[in-house]
Design a protein that fits this description.
The protein contains two helices and no strands. The chain is mainly alpha-helical. Helix 1 packs antiparallel against helix 2. The two termini are 15 Å apart.
């Protein structure tokens, strides 16, 4: 029972972290879109931030899905 509680808490923390990173990624995404609309090359820094945030979000989602499979797979 304690293990399920611990997994649910981990999932909640991961979801919060994903939401935070998505906000940060949105800023770099806006800069990329702005550059595209202005028909200029986007800043390498903006591209790097976007890729970095996207990679971290994807890794966290994979971890969260694994935890959810363990948690809810045990209930089925």
């Amino acid at each position: 029972m304690f293990e399920k509680f611990k997994m649910k808490k981990q999932i909640k923390v991961i979801r919060q972290r994903i939401a935070f990173l998505e906000q940060k990624r949105a800023r770099s995404q806006a800069a990329l879109v702005d550059a595209i609309l202005k028909k200029v090359d986007p800043s390498d820094e903006d591209v790097e931030y976007f890729n970095q945030f996207t990679g971290e979000i994807e890794r966290l989602r994979a971890d969260m899905h694994e935890l959810e499979a363990q948690l809810y797979g045990a209930n089925k």
